[in-house]
Structures are given as structure tokens and as C-alpha cells.
Amino acid sequence: MSLRSDTSYRNPFEDQNALQMNPSRVYDLYCDPKPLLDRGEADFFREKAIFFEGSRGCGKTMVLRHLSFEVQSIAAKENGVRLLDHIQAKGGVGFYLRIDNARLLSFQGPKRPRIPWARLFEHYFELSVATSFVQLLQLLQSRREIDPDDLGRKIARSIGDVLGTEVPFESFQEIDHHIFQELRKVEDFINLSPYREVQFNPTRAFRIGSLTGELPRLICHLVEPLADAKFLILIDEFENFSEAQQRALNSLIRSAGPNLGFRLAMRREGLKTLGTTRPSETLRANSDFRRATFKDVLVKEGEYRTFLERLADKRLARVPFFVEAGLTSIRKILGEEDDEEEARRLIERKKDKTLHFESLKLAYTDPEIAKLKESLRCPANPLLEQLNILYLLRGRDATEIQRSMTEYLRAVEAGKRTHRGSTAPKLDGTKYGWDYIHKYKLALLFRLTFAYKAQKEYYGFNVFCFLSSGIPRNFINLCKTAFHQAQFTLSEEEFKKLGTIPPDIQAEAARKEAEVELTNIASIFQFANELSWLAKNLGTVFAEYHRDPYLRYPETNTLALDPGSLDDYNSSVLRAAVMNSVIQPKRREQKSGPGLSILPNYTLNRLLCPVFNISYRTRGGILERYSDSEFGRMCREEGVPPHHLPAAYRRSARRLAAGRPGQVPQHGQQSTLDDAFETQRR
Amino acid sequence: MPDHVFARIWDLETTGRSRLSKNYDLFIGGCGSDTRAYSALRSLVKKRTSLGEVLLLDFAQRSSAIVDASERAQYDSYESIGPRIKVQSCSPLESRDMRGIGSELLGLPSGAKVALDISVLTKPYIFAVMRAISEIPGLGFVHVLYTEPGRYLHTPSGTYPFSKGPYRVVDIPGFAGRLSGPKDVLLVLLLGFEGSASKAVFEELTPAKVVPVNGFPSYLLHYKDESIVQNDPLFEQVAAIEDLQFAPAANPFETFNVLGDLKKEADQLQLSLVISPIGPKPMALGAALFCLHHPEARVVYPMPASYEGKVSTDLGKSWLYEVEFPTASLPGKSSAG
Question: What is this model's ipTM?
């Protein structure tokens, strides 16, 4: 029976967008993002203003929605306390507001005089927030935490005064209706003004802060348990606000009283201005607001993995199929990567199981290679064979290599520690083990895949964590696709029996997600072409390093760039690339190579790694460093070749990759390629 | 406000001929280099129909995309058709001020006869012109003409690049819907051949529910299911194939009726209805008519960076739609406030 027919089966990762979840689902799946941010949930309720910045899918919306009164009311219920008491204990509660970009653009209507669009937006914004206040009050009333005939009426009348109505309100429903009517006037104006002259006649026009500033003060004054509470305006996708709209909000933040707070979520580089509506006034970091940046690729690996594990396990625990089968650990279901096993699988599938020895043609004749194959084979572990090839290409003696490998294998068999660090030039079993385990293992696997024109399999919990590139939604998407693939490949019994998703299914999912990510870059509104080429060119350059038979700079996947050196255009492209997580900045600046200055570092979004067959982890070593003009070329079709690989080598490597080796030098003679390599090393 | 309407649709080659008026106070169409661009206008002129004024909308992004001389000649061929033609340049990307068109229409006498050829109008302008027409006092009905393409041009890989560049999703002016309605959205995607367009809309709105509507039957048999194929990423990632609905590609009234049913569903689920008219123009016409009756429905459109000059060739069937404007009952006629 297929998993599809099992009614208790549901893909636990189906809903990956916090915007589409109902409040109880948000409550169920929320995890404190402390590992991704400097501070955690406890601070979110009490501070004045926090600007959450991060990539798409990093969890900003989840945080904001968690702070909203809709979700907090569920938390109160679950804890068996009154919502008022819950808010008092937490220190505050929020109103979630997301105005989509199309809607925001509607408030930048025809450029005609006498239509103050910015003022109209302020009016709309104030009414929208007021609606949320009323909804909270209605909820409190429905839970009998506010008496409609006493306190409720008192609040309603006070709000009526603020709204400027002639007849006093007696209930929250009346306020709700009034605001609804006022919003209708805004709608009608927006809809009719493109076609004809139309008057806008609100009961009272609200400037920014006239309701959002007044309502918290009023409620805190009248509702005793909320005397010290902070009402949080939670604005999502703040990057879509125009500069004028951001200024209006900044003014509100600047002038907010003690009962009003702000949590603004935006992409990196999404803040267009710190200015306010007053020319001389700007927001001051750490005084008016705190920046909380979701740490993309820089999160401490252990903490980040634990966070993802918790996030995924929560989802598994909510699907009966997985609970009944005892499959509630994502770590177990995805398992651990095993490079040696993968290498064996790769070779097993191939007819010619010694194809990787072909690269020896760079330094040896065919009869010599045949002889070397005999002495340096290790079919049980093709990665060791690949290491032997590397040693040979680097000029090591075959006998020395064979002896070291034997020593290493004996030590492994005897269960001895085999990989202590060694700087000694002499190759022995210990150095062999060190090089293998700590320096080259993964790089050798990549090299092997290139030799066989195969794809690296990206699978396993740790690898998925790496591929997610610090963005939890990437991890959820990877899991979603892996579970989806499993659903159509495995039977229910098979899945339960295995208790894990096989590597090939996971790898297929990773590749699919990577391709989707690359396709999505082409639909980014600004600089789509430039960003597509940047991703493709960078991926191709990094792949060249992975293909290098000499493995001079293993697993190179980072670039260094001085944003200050870029012209305006390239600078905008770089900002767009970071904003859309095509490349991700690393927090710590680093030297791009020996003797080179320290520069900001960026990695290609790791989710793209399967497209280019490159490494998902960061290793020290050389970085690709681009000048302004080179960066410009990387954003166009032409690209820039890898800086640290000799051009002559690159041509040969491509010939090898295409199965057309170039002229092979005689053993003992330095080839031009080796010359180039030696020059490079010196 | 009707949720359903009866189809008033005629084949112009047969029964539709006799339905056409002998005179129109205003004919509105679009400039284009597709074979069908001026087909209806030529046909009316050939029949010696009296045309008071002819207004052609010249879309800057489409015109500037033409590089081929023969395409340019075809684009400019309206000059040789005959009647006095007024060309108004406009831009779908900057369609927020429609008063230019509105003034042409508002000058018309009560009960004026208007013919609108939507064959090569951009979809945002189908909505805009319909909205502007609805402002004409005492207008009973409008004859909307549509000529199907003989075939669409496509790339060797089987995609249909009608537009270029990434999309910016915008509200169509005059169809911004309710600001005061439910926050969660039921998104109706009138599917077209550009799959990335639907995806852009989905990502902008992140709706609670998506209902794709496929134009079926299609204009021609070989376009059957093409929209579904081209929107494969949408179905793979976000939309359920079980939710797929159908409305004939050439029948705006059926689109109106499907939207009527979906409106009820949205109301039941307490969702805001948002429509994105990406597919066939008659379906966009149906959506425009529906939204004029139901101003609470919002219309969003994935605006491309630019349009292709020529997207189809040859001539297919021609249709006449008699669209009624019960102006007295149309909402949104009073001043705001």
C-alpha cells in the first residue's frame, strides 16, 4: 500500500509559510529563535522598538505572529490563565499588520496635485491599527474579562472621543462599524480617483500617531491589569514601504510613549531611511530602536542544528502516522551522511571502476598508470584511492603513499587513533590519516564525482542543516520535498521498517530545491538578470576549484568584496543580492589570502550547492576576491575565471572533464601545468 | 448585485453580424502588430458602419519592443483603415491615472453606443476601460469584440514569452477591493501561459486558499491543458489540482458565473476574494464585469517589466459579447465620503 492511501499520513512540512498558518498552528510550531538572534522571546515583549532583519524564510513572520494577541490568547488558554493576566505577565502583546506591496503601491496613486497620498496612507494605517485594538477589546469582552456594561462602555466612549464621532459609542461593535465605514471612504477614494475628481470626506483625518499613540495610553489607563503593558505594533515586510511611508512610521517610533512598542520585520537592506517626517529628526540606533539580525550562515552550528531539530520534531509529533510509527526524530529519519559509503555507491554503479585514475595522465604515461593502479588501489574505500592520486600528482612517491595507506588502514583496523595533526613533510600513516579525515575527505568525494561526471549526493540531517544556509524555511522546504519524494517512492511498511528516508531520495529532494531556488532568482523584481548571472557564475567558479585534480584550494566557496569600492550600480546589485539571499554576508571579515587585506566575506547561498556540485560547508583558505569591474562582470554573462587556478590548468581540467585529456608529460618531467602550480605555490 | 449572468455571446462570422449596430458613437481598441489587432475595426469599416470616434490605445512598452520592420508596418497599419482615428499613448506600467480615457467617455451623450475591441488591449486596460465605461451616464450595454489568435508564438522549448522581465504585482486601478475586509485571502488565478506570473502573484499575496481557473474549452484544441502544463510549478508547490476550476476561454459570462460561486465560498470561509486575470482576455473581461458588480473583490496583476511586440499570428474566431451595464445599480458611483 502506498503512503498516499494512508489517511493518517500527512507531510509534516507541508505548510512552510507562517503567513498561511492559523494562530493555533503558529502557537504549536513556534520555537524561540534565540539561537538565531542575540536575545530571545523574553525581550521581545518589553523593548521599545526592535527591527528584525533577515533573509526570506528566516522566521521573522513567525516571531511577529507569535507576539500577536491572536496567538497569545491561545497561549493564555493553554496555560489556564486570563488573557489580561497573561499580557500583564508577559509585559505586552502585539497587533500583527502586513500590508502587501500591491496595496502599498495603491497609496502612491496618480501623481496629481491636491492628493496627499502620504497623508492618506497615515490615515489608513491609523485606522488599521485601531481595528486591531478593537478586536483585542472584543476578544477580552467575549472572554468576560471586560464587562460590556461597565468598563466596556467606558472604554467605548473614550475611544469615540478619540475618533471624533458626534454620538458617543456604547459598545466595541459600534466602534468597529465606524472604523469600517471610515475605511470604506479610503477604499472608494483609491478606487475612484484614477478615473475622476472625487472628494475625500472622513469624519476626522488622522495623522500618524493620533490613534496609535492615544489608544494604548487610554486602555492602559482604564484597564487596570494593563497599566504597565506595552502594545506592540508588529509590521511585517517593512522593506515594501516606500521611503515616505517608512518616514511616517519612524516618526511614530520616535514619539511613542511608554505603552507603545514596535517590532518591524524586514529583509536585510530593507530599511530605506532612518529619517522621520521632520527634516531635522532621525531615529537613533540603540536608543530609539535595536537591530536584531537573523544570523544567516553564521549561527553557531550546534545551536542552529538543535533549533532546526526542535522545529522539525514539533511538526513530526503532530502527525499521527509518525507518532504511531515512533518516527518523531528528524535526526534519525534523515540520518547522517557517510562519505565513504557514498563513494562506494558511486563506483559500484560504474562500469569502469578506475576512471578516477585518469587524472594521473597529467603526470604519467598509460603503462605507468596501469602499474600505479595495481599498487594504490583500495576498492573498499575509493576515497583513499583518490587521496593516493592526489599525492601522486603532488609529486609524492608511490611506495611512500602505499606504505602510509597500509599503516593507516592497519591502525583503523586496530581501532587506534589515526589522525593526529602533523606538520612533518614526511608522509606516514598518521599524516595520511590526518590529511584524509581533516583536510580532504569531502573534497576527495567531490573530486571523485567530477571524475565520474556524477552528482554528489546531498543527504543527512547535518547536510540539510548546512544547505539551509541559516534560513529555517530552507530546511523545512528540504524536508518537505524529501518527505514528498518518499511518499511517492516508499510503501507505508517500507517507510516504517526503514525508519529513515534513503539517501538517494533525500539527494533528489535537495537537487530539486536547489533548482527551484536558482529559478526563483530570475523572478526577483530588481536586478533579476544580474543576480541570476552572479549565482551561476559564482557557482561555476567554485565548481572549478572542486574539480581541480590537485585540490589546491579544497572546498572554496567564499568570496571577498569591498562594498565601498563598488560603483553605484554594482553597489545596488550587491544590496539586492544580499537582500534576496543570493549571497550571504559572513559577520566576521577575513583575509582573502596570504598577504591580502581583510575584507567582508560572502558565501553563495548554500541551498544552491547541489546545482553546482560544490561544498556546503566553510573551510579556511583562499577566497575569490573581486574588484568593482570584476564584480560587474560576474553579474553579466561573461563572468570572471577563477583567480587562483592557472589558465593552462583550467583548459586541461576541462579537457579531462570532457574525457579528452591533453598531452601527457613524461614521468619525472615537470609539466607546464605543474610549473604553473609550483609558481602559484611559491 | 448578480452572482450569475446569462451569456450574451455571438459568433461574429454567423449570427453575430446581425447583432452589430449600424453606428457606434465610440470605438475603442488597441494598437498591435498581431494579425488580429485591427481585424474588428477593418470589418466594421468594410461593413460601412458609422463610427463617431475611433480611439486606439498605444501601449508604450509594446510599441518600443518592436524591432522588426514588417512588425512595425503592421503595428502602424491602422493609419490606412479609414476613419478618423485618435491614438492615445498609454502605459500599462503607469496606469494609475485613467482620466485621459475617462474624459473621452464622459463626453459621450447618455445612451451612447460604444464598441470595445479587447483583442490586443493589455489586461489592466480591459479593466480600466470597463471601469471608465461604467461611468458613462445612461449606458445600457456595450458591444465588446474579440478576435482569437490563429496561433500563439512560442519558443522552441514550448514556452510563451508574452512579456519580459520579472513581475511587480500591483492592484489594478479602481479595483483595489476592500481595505476593511477579512485579512486572509482566497486567490483566484485565471491561468495563462506564463507560469511564473501566477507564482509571482501567489508569493506576493500568500493566500489562505488558491483556486486556479483554467480556460477550458480553449480557443483551439491544441491549447487544451496548456495553461496547466505551463503552471506546473504552481501546482507542484502551492495549488491543489483538486481545486482547479474551468471556464470556457472565450466566454466571459461563464467566468463571471464561476467567480460568483467562488465569491460565495470566500464569504463562507471568511476570506477576501482576490482575482488575478493572467489568462485569456475574455476571462479578464468576465472578471472586470464581475468586479464592477462586486467592488469588494480585489484585482491584482503581475506587471511585467515590458511586453513583447508580437505574440500571436493569423486569425481565429471572432466574438461579440453584449455586456450590460446596469449603471443605476453599480456600486461605487457616489463620491467617497
Answer: 0.86
